[in-house]
Amino acid sequence: DIDRIYAGDLHGNMWTFDVSATGLVAGTDGHRNGAAQWKVHAALEEPFFTACSAALNQHGVCPRDNRQPITSTPLITNNPIQIDDDTRPNYLVFFGTGQYVTNDDKESENTQTFYGIWDAGISSAGLNQSNLTARTINALDANGNRTIASAIVNYSVSDGLYGWYFTSLPVSKERVVLNPLLFGNTLLFQTLIPVSGACNATAGSGFIMAVDPLTGGNPTIDVLGNSDGVNVAGIRVSSVIVGSSITKTDDDNKLNIKTADGEITERSISGSVVDPSNIGPGGFFKEKGRKSWTILQ
Length: 297
Known about the structure:
Number of helices: 0
Distance between the termini: 24 Å
Largest sheet: 6 strands, mixed
Shape: globular
Order of helices and strands: EEEEEEEEEEEEEEEEEEEEEEEE
Strand content: 25-35%
Structural class: mainly beta
């Protein structure tokens, strides 16, 4: 059953709705549907997180010019290193910012980024960048490959730390408008860099990024290549990326990148899909196989 809904808006707010109440619930007006008990995150009537490229003002509001719109679907998974009942639901929420909807959007140079945030229930209401560990995307080589500066990311209610974010997507006009993917213990997302003044909405380029979901750092396996012993975190794609998927077989794993020109590029993914030394209690992923059963007759 669905117990939680996450939704972003054009003002940079990521909202969480508790929809765990079901069936008939007794109330002062007799029995009513459980939907009457649904509520905004922690019943505090404020966003779970505000995506803003500057500090919030004295009223806790992001200045208009610094708001980072959220137009893609967030990716939700369990937080494998936080499983206490006091911080339930203990989900990790991944999403990027930016929009490509109106004619003016292709000219926008507002700073956009990508976030990985721990939903620790009522403890994590009203979060912003000050509650996250800042990460930096760097150029790795002359080919435009990227790497992420290493850093430890703590998840701690007492310290007010709930995840990570990139200080910016480095290229002017770069943004995220497609949904992220999770493969093994690797988080994948695509960026868009539109061409200024072009009438063709498919004109531009972008990056495919692969990072460690827990830290936002370089991937723990070779997804996009390896340079001098360092797993590459991002590669440039010369056309607009319109989607990506993972093909898994018994012998191989491939990342399929589809671009606006109709081309599909395949990249083999090597290395262990799940590195046990990199995953804490709970794990991101369970073993393959039957997860449930039912009697048909």
